[in-house]
Amino acid sequence: MPCRELHYTKTDDWAAIATWLDQRKDPDTKVDSIVRDILATVKKQGDEALVTYTRKFDCESFTADTLRVPAEAIAAALSDIPDSDIAILEEAISRVRDFHANQKEKSWWTTAPDGTVLGQMVRPVDRVGLYVPGGQGGETPLISSLIMNAVPAQVAGVASIAVTSPPRKDATLNPYILATAALLGLDEIYLAGSAWAIAALAYGTQTIAPCDVLAGPGNIFVATAKSQLIGQVGIDMVAGPSEIAILADSSANPAWLAADMLSQAEHDPLAASILVTPDSELAAAVRKELVSQCAALPRGEIAAKSLASWGAIISVPDMTLGAELINLLAAEHLELALADPWSMLGSIRHAGAIFMGHNSPEPVGDYFAGPNHVLPTLRTVRFSSALSVQNFCKKSSVIATSPGYVSEHGHKIARLARLEGLEAHARSVECRNK
């Protein structure tokens, strides 16, 4: 199983690495037109379009009557999964909720001696739509995605949350999705997948009310639909394939590093797994571990393709250049597999989530620790952040100026307006000083 061996010895070496990695984000323009047609069809036909697409791709017997999952079925799913799993889900939800509670922002106000009040009012959006991929034929439900998207919306105070997920062939959802929804207190779930589900959440149909913000991962059709709706609704982000970068020193365990790289590689043939290290012996040991561990994985074929195309072990002369390269990679997930990761943290400027030390593997963040696992990819962490409570809030400025304020500053405001050729703006202020 080949895995690139690269070297980064100076800043000029980045150009070749960037050119290689940038190939992961080449757009599939054929999808654009297909998705545009789907959005237009759902907008025009509503439920009828959802039934047509669902019958074609997911469930041949699907009808409009089965579009919404009954509340009783959601509640009943709790009896369909083991109590031990319910306990794990409850703890994961609690940890994610506790973390996101710290992200809540408060409205604020300032007052001046003349009575002027200025401030900012923070309010949740009215309604959110969440997309949950069904997994392989509905048998590998992405329950963590439901938790990570629903909890920050709930912490933000969103009153209305709708969930869509593609049905299985028998027009049902995996009981783990339903049970997780029940534990989250969600009772509005619809059987719809792909771009038509996104269209329904954005535009609304006869059954589904339109939403203000859409969130949740999905395939290229889901991602493209969300990107085409920017400006009409809010979205979490347009995420690309998963990625991990690891900065490791000689204290790292090569078997653990290989396992962490494979945890991303098994996602998708486009996933990127990159190890950066100054230790040549460690690099060689990790390469051997990748071969043996990949062969034993159920999704080993996917992981092997990912590593062959987008995996790399990059040698650096020292940790200073290692940190420089890590910031250029700007990865979704970053592991600092170092003897003293805290001494390096201050050098990290660009990473979606940072995992500190040898006992913080990336899956800890995916499922259980509390921080959100919905993270920017394809180097967009340079200017964007993890999904948070803020994605489901909006902020309104509040301006209450007094007569004294207008008297003192009105002529200045009028002057600025006239410089821009807006006479009515100037007179709007001046008429209050007559």
Any chance you could write out the topology, listing elements then pairs?
Elements: E1 4-7, H1 14-22, H2 29-45, H3 47-57, H4 71-76, H5 83-101, E2 108-111, E3 117-124, E4 127-131, H6 143-156, E5 160-165, H7 175-184, E6 189-191, H8 194-203, E7 213-215, H9 220-228, E8 234-235, E9 243-248, H10 254-265, E10 272-277, H11 280-295, H12 300-310, E11 311-315, H13 319-329, E12 333-337, H14 342-345, E13 353-356, H15 362-367, E14 393-400, H16 403-419, H17 423-430
Structural class: alpha/beta
Tell me, what is the CATH class of the largest domain? Alpha Beta
Strand content: 15-25%
N-C termini distance: 82 Å
CATH architecture of the largest domain: 3-Layer(aba) Sandwich
Which fold name is given in CATH as the topology of the largest domain?
Rossmann fold
Per the principal axes of the C-alpha atoms, what is the gross shape?
A: globular
**Major sheet description:** 6 strands, parallel
| Rg value | 25 Å
Going across the major beta sheet, what is the strand order?
1-11-10-9-12-13
Can you tell me the residue ranges where pLDDT is under 50 for at least 5 consecutive residues?
Answer: none
Q: Kindly give the count of domains.
A: 3
How many strand elements?
14
Number of helices: 17
Mean pLDDT: 95
Helix fraction, binned, reads: 40-55%
Describe this structure in words.
The protein is α/β, with parallel strands linked by helices. The protein folds into three domains: 4-26 and 241-382, Nitrogenase molybdenum iron protein domain (Rossmann fold), CATH 3.40.50.1980; 46-110 and 123-235, Rossmann fold; 401-433, no CATH class. It is built from 17 helices and 14 strands. Strands 1-11-10-9-12-13 form a six-stranded parallel beta sheet, sandwiched between helices. Strand 5 (160-165), helix 7 and strand 6 form a beta-alpha-beta unit. Helix 6 (143-156) runs parallel beside helix 7 and helix 10 (254-265) packs across helix 11 (280-295). It is globular, with a radius of gyration of 25 Å. The N and C termini lie far apart (82 Å).
